[in-house]
Amino acid sequence: MLLKKQTKKMIAPVVITVLVISYFVFYMWLGLAGSGDIPLLMKILLIVVPSGLIVLMVYLLVERVNEIKEDDDDDLSKY
Question: Domain coordinates of the chain in residue numbers?
């Protein structure tokens, strides 16, 4: 029963992370493939900024999963 409760809590963060990462990948692809002659600085920004945000999203997902595994109840239920 405990595994099912943790698994249910992990579904939303994983789905949101996948959707946001797919948005960033699409944004990188659209920015780089859609325009022909863009400056090098713009190409670098179109790769670095979304890549950094993807890394941040994965880090936040790992933090959330660790939080769920600790099995602490929500803060509101403590009051």
Answer: 8-70
pTM (predicted TM-score): 0.77
Residue type, 72: D
d(CA 75, CA 52): 30
Q: Which two tokens stand for residue 55?
A: 């890394």
Residues 6+ apart with CB under 8 A from 16: none
Contact 50/73 with Cβ under 8 angstroms?
A: no
pLDDT per position as a tens digit, 15-74? 999 999 999 999 888 877 866 788 888 888 888 999 999 999 999 999 998 888 887 555
